Amino acid sequence: MTDTDTPSAWDRVSIHGGHSGQFCLHAKDSLEAVVQAYIAQGFSWVGITEHLPPPSDRFRYEDEISAGLSAAFLQDRFSRYIEEARRLQETCRGQIRIYVGMETEAYTGAIPFCRELIREHRPDYIVGSVHHVDDVNFDFSAEHYQAAVSAAGGLDNLYLRYFDQQYDMIRSLSPAVVGHFDLVRIHDPDYRKRMEAAPVKERIRRNLELIRERNLILDCNARAFVKGAAEPYPTETILRQALELNIAVVPGDDSHGIDSVGLHVDRVCRWLTDLGFDTAWKLPTS
Predict the structure, then answer these.
(1) What domains can be seen in the chain, in order of their start residue?
(2) Helix 71-91 to helix 110-121 angle, to the nearest 10 degrees?
(3) 18 touches 27 (CB < 8 A)
(4) What is the reported pLDDT for 130?
(5) Residues facing 178 on adjacent strands
């Protein structure tokens, strides 16, 4: 499965995309440029899912700290993001359908703060994601990952705590989309073996059953390929379970600038097609 596969049986969509340098320090380009890139690539629709701003300075990312950006500034920037995304939603109507969303966090205070932002901004949907375990970020870099492993008391515990926090987040927020389900494996070369451990397998199944019960969508996230992985988030083993449980799975490019718009989306679509998933993609607001 490669990006040279010719799409024929699916619409190009991204349920988890549209980060831009205008509103995210570790992304590039303006949001309008990112949206225009989706239009140029013939996407039917895209979900713009900027990150939740931190409720306090404590949970700023390292690059935000280095740049001297306060939580107050990031919260104001998020408001401007919503305004710009809504503007593009209107001006690009007829060229592409845009769903204005946001991506959650799961650290201390994130869930009640997310509820506040939902009441204030009324996004079309949210992507439920976990990037911290016990308040330690694990996906920013390999060094951050090792710090999270140490704080958790080992890799096995990191996996267990990740899936427990994901379960709590899903129960609390019922996000329309669950983002990069098994992101915890990002810097673990032995993730396949670790996911076969009974306590991890049980948590994965429990979380998938909750997703089915709530009728949520699973993001099939192509950014794993950008990071050099051999399969998307989630793994093929987890995708097969999702298929068995009749969970809707929709591709997401998790783009962070125009150079990653649509990257590996056709590869993901081919992957899902070969597994037997329905490519009449479920919308994030349905």
Answers:
(1) 13-275 (3.20.20.140)
(2) 40
(3) no
(4) 98
(5) 128, 218
pTM, two decimal places: 0.94
| Type of residue found at 126 | I
**Mean pLDDT value of segment 108-135:** 97
> Which of 25, 50, 20, 74 has its CA nearest to residue 123?
50
Q: How many helices (H) and strands (E) does the chain have?
A: 11, 9
> Are the C-beta atoms of 263 and 240 separated by less than 8 Å?
no
pLDDT for 8 equals 54
Q: DSSP H helical segments within the chain, as ranges?
A: 31-40, 62-66, 71-91, 110-121, 142-152, 155-173, 191-195, 198-214, 223-226, 236-244, 265-275
Residue 182 has pLDDT above 90, yes or no: yes
Asked whether the predicted pLDDT for residue 285 surpasses 90, the reply is no
Q: Tokens for 162, please give them.
A: 């990740």
Going by their DSSP bridges, the two strands 136-137 and 132-133 should be labelled as: antiparallel
